[in-house]
Amino acid sequence: MGLAAGTKLGPYEILTPVGAGGMGEVYRARDTRLDRDVAIKVLPAHLAKDVEFRRRFEREARTVSSLNHPHICTLYDIGREGDTDFLVMELLEGETVAERVKRGKLPLHELLKIGSEMADALDKAHRKGVVHRDLKPANIMLTKSGAKLMDFGLAKPAGLAGAAGSSSAPLLSAAMTSSGPSPASPITSAGSIVGTIQYMSPEQIEGKEADARSDIFAFGATLYEMVTGVRAFPGKSQISVASAILEKDPEPIIKAVPLAPPALDRVVMTCLAKDPEERFQSAHDLKLEIQWATEAGSPAAAPAPVVAARTNRERLAWATAGALLLLVALFAVGYALRAPRPASMVRASMNLPPSSHPPAGQDCLAGWFTISPDGRRLAFVASNPEGKYVLWVRPLDSLAAQPLAGTEGATYPFWSPDSSRLGFFAEGKLKKIEASGGPVETVCAASEGRGGTWGPNGEIVFAPGVYTGLWRVAAAGGTPTQVTFPADATTTQRFPSFLPDGKHFLFNSDIPGGGHGGIYAGAVDSKEVKRVAAERSSAQYAAPGYLLFMREGNLMAQPFDAARLATAGDAVPIGENLMSDSVRQLGSFSVSNNGVLVFRTTGTAGTKHQLTWVDREGKELGKVGEPADLSFPALSPDESKAVVHLRGTNGKTNLWMYDLKRGLGSRFTFSAADDEQPAWSPDGSQVAFTSDRSGNFDLYLKSAQGAGAEQLLLGGPGEKHLSDWSRDGRFICYYVHGGPAKNSQVWILPMTGERKPYAFLQGEANFEYAEFSPDVRWLAYTSDESGHPESYVVPFPGPGGKWQISSAGAVYSWWSGDGKEIYYLTPDLKLIAVEVNTKGTELAVGASHPLLGGKTGGENFIGLDFSRDGKRILIAVPQEDTSAPITLVTNWTVGLKR
Predict the structure, then answer these.
(1) CATH 2.120.10.30 domain span(s) along the chain
(2) DSSP codes of every residue in 115-149
């Protein structure tokens, strides 16, 4: 029977159970002396009577206490309370590798980082004479500070012969009398079976002495599972698993994961050698090999060396060989950029500035880099020294990148056919610039650009807005002409890409409500379009005849006949776990005309954010909870809770409720669609929000207590996006895309009487993001009626004048709790406060001043909300950028032939 909450073990108070295994039960507890949470491992009473179990328990204490390493769980204390023996250890917050693998294979950069940390931890343990003997995914915890090796319950000092239970006879007899374990979970036993059989080395199964090389075998099995998502030695029973470990080799990683670097395959297979003499002879050698694989990237043409026991001379030789291989890889990349068809595929990594991940709060969420048609240069978006996001260009044969002056706020860059110029969107315009720098020229208006493509005949096809269809315009400038015509006002057509004939182009179309969205082909001289694939993804043609697109996070290549505008054959993956913008259905990949492919896989950048309280000057006041893929907090009226967007593993956003005092979050909505844009009722009893669970964005309502199902508040035509709920509870305002007009409109939904909604702000411009003043006499909103978004205020319910609040552009705006200020966010993500006087019938606009110390907010503005007194701001702050580098592949089609 487990320990109840509140049980005291010396100065430690049990809080909640964490887990249990063959060697003990683990609890979360509070150290009342130091006021910190710890993990307590308790040897169960029925096992404490067993001399062997107590001996192992005491051994773990001695073993762990001798190890002091950043990637090994720290032992704080050991004690005994009555008949209860316990260990007090560091409380690790995160998930185990076993839990992480259930969500899918790990990206290469993440796997190599974990592998390097674990190899270093093993090296430390082995140097202290400690063999773990139960290394497996469930015993590696992934935390904010890195991976942590834990659970030394079966560890023993190296050289301790004759350990009880090391014989294999009991293992095999147990297997023959049992139906076997669940295939979903490894078999872990203590006593006669020492270790977890799926990760045990052949010598352990044969009853021989386990040494450091046995841990290396288990390490290899763990790495294999991390990269492939399956166990190296599967089986339905202990005997079938044991037989596989003794007699079979796992399927090569290269076969299971074609894009895995051969260097990693060789590392894992060396770890898994049947003969201990053929494995790495120390964890230190293993760590060096992983570091080599990390630094060298993954050139498919360059096999990684395999090392057993090394002398210093051998290490020097291999280091020299590694350096030569790197030079060969670099030469191959350079040659690939000059030769029409390289003889082999080369893969390499390219690091970009930390600020080069997608800038939050802007429309450049994934399409922020592009390779030039000649494969020589990469253009990308990153912040300059002043903190503004601009275009940069980096030659692939150089480590230096050049920022292009005058491109502030640039989104969705694309190249001219001759690779000399770049097109991009900024300030509500389609613009162009020489790739080497120079004056920026405006081509035409494009209020909310969604991608463009530059054809060989001097024309650009582009999406000037979300629901505008595609248009064409001369690259020299002029009046645009519409070339595609959406079926209705809720259909998007975006991210065009020319085909080789310079006449036809690909584009992505999204039709709400489950319509025939997908990848389409159009032509500059025809209104006809043809659906070429059902994938909801951006697409690009790649020579000599492939369609590249995203599917479930993977980059796919499918044979494509550009003359017939038709696919042929099956699509195959050529890249895994790519960054993407699921809302705009845009993937992070680009391909040149001569076979240079670039893409970027997911990392933690832009995904993990920490809810943080700051004051008006930007000084941190405290954190709330743990980092998560959250954004856009909305404070409850009493400021005790916040509803946030939290993105799930399916890429969809649900709402979570955070208790701001306890720092705990719980899921609030449970649909498989996108639930977003919450607004609290004035009394805090209900939350209204937007959801597309019906196939269209509509308004819903739910009790703030979480009880009961969500109810539809407002359906009907047009995509409805919630903005605010008035302080008196009488009105909800929202903005609509589609419906009677293509431009966004602000609508009002009365919450009394017949509840008949009506349009409040509409016209040729876009009207969005409205918010009521505290006294509900004014409405602030954003509009691009001047050519770019600005913040305005009008009387509510009208009529009356109109006052412009912002002076250099505004993305969002908020009222202060007392109605004496309006805060707005500039396009370059600075937060400005403007004094206003609303007592009369005329609005008086006063002085403005920057908040947060005048600093550019940058990625800090992935969402915020203000306390009623205006003294505190709750911000979702991104954590350290650890996103993957750009992966560059030359002659990528060679991988398809394999």
Answers:
(1) 348-604+886-897, 618-878
(2) HHHHHHHHHHHHHTTEE-S---GGGEEEETTEEEE
Q: CB of 338 within 8 A of CB of 882? A: no
Provide the phi-psi class of 796: left if phi over 0, else alpha when psi is between -120 and 50, else beta. Answer: beta
Determine the CATH number of domain 99-310.
1.10.510.10
Encode pLDDT of 832-890 as tens digits: 999 999 988 889 999 999 998 766 554 455 788 999 999 999 998 876 554 567 888 88
End-to-end CA distance of the chain: 56
- Looking at residue 275, its amino acid is D
* pLDDT for 523 beyond 80: yes
Residue 157 pLDDT level (bands cut at 50, 70, 90)? low
**One-letter amino acid of 405:** A
The helix (run of H) or strand (run of E) holding residue 173 is helix 169-176
Assigned token pair, 316:
């020097």
Task: Write the DSSP assignment of 851-889 as a string of letters.
Answer: SGGG---GGG-S-EEE-TTSSEEEEEEE----PPPEEEE
Among 474-483, 677-686, 697-706, 858-867, whose mean pLDDT is lowest? Answer: 858-867
Residue 484 makes CB contacts below 8 A (sequence gap 6+) with 469, 470, 493, 507, 522, 527, 529
User: Hey, what are 3's tokens?
Assistant: 């320990």
Strand duo 831-837 + 844-850: pairing: antiparallel
Least confident range from 351-365, 448-462, 840-854, 860-874: namely 351-365
Rounded to 5°, angle at Cα 301 from 296 and 302: 40
The C-alpha atoms of residue 813 and residue 827 are separated, in whole angstroms, by 12
If we measure between CA atoms, which residue out of 69, 63, 231 comes closest to residue 146? 69
In 10 A of CB 554, how many CB atoms? 17
- Catalytic annotation on 151? no
The answer to whether 573 touches 555, Cβ cutoff 8 Å, is yes
Does position 313 have pLDDT exceeding 60, yes or no?
no
In three-state secondary structure terms, 356 is helix
Side chain identity, residue 137: P
At 89-147, the pLDDT tens digits run 888 888 899 999 988 888 877 888 899 999 999 998 888 878 888 899 999 999 888 89
CATH superfamily name and code, 1-91: Phosphorylase Kinase; domain 1 (3.30.200.20)
Cut 0.70: pTM above it: no
* Average pLDDT over every residue of 676-686: 95
Share of the chain above pLDDT 90, in %: 41
Domain with CATH 1.10.510.10 in the chain: 99-310
Which CATH number applies to 348-604+886-897? Answer: 2.120.10.30
Residue-level pLDDT at 361: 40
Peptide bond into 799 cis (omega under 30): yes
pLDDT recorded at residue 173 = 26
| CB 534 within 8 Å of CB 546 | no
Residues with Cβ < 8 Å from 490, sequence gap 6 or more? 467, 511, 512, 696, 717, 718, 719, 737, 738, 739
The pLDDT score that the predictor gives to residue 259 is: 64
Q: Which of 31, 85, 134, 724 is catalytic?
A: 134
Fold of 618-878: Neuraminidase (2.120.10)
Using CB atoms within 10 A of its CB, is residue 207 exposed (0-12), middle (13-18) or buried (19+)?
middle
What would the 3-class secondary structure string for 317-340 be? Answer: HHHHHHHHHHHHHHHHHHHHHHCC
Answer positive or negative: Cα dihedral of 266, 268, 271, 273.
negative
Check: CB of residue 742 under 8 Å from CB of residue 724.
no
What is the band of 172 on the pLDDT scale with cuts at 50, 70, 90? very low
Helix (H, G, I), strand (E, B) or coil at 592: coil
Q: What is the pLDDT of residue 141?
A: 92
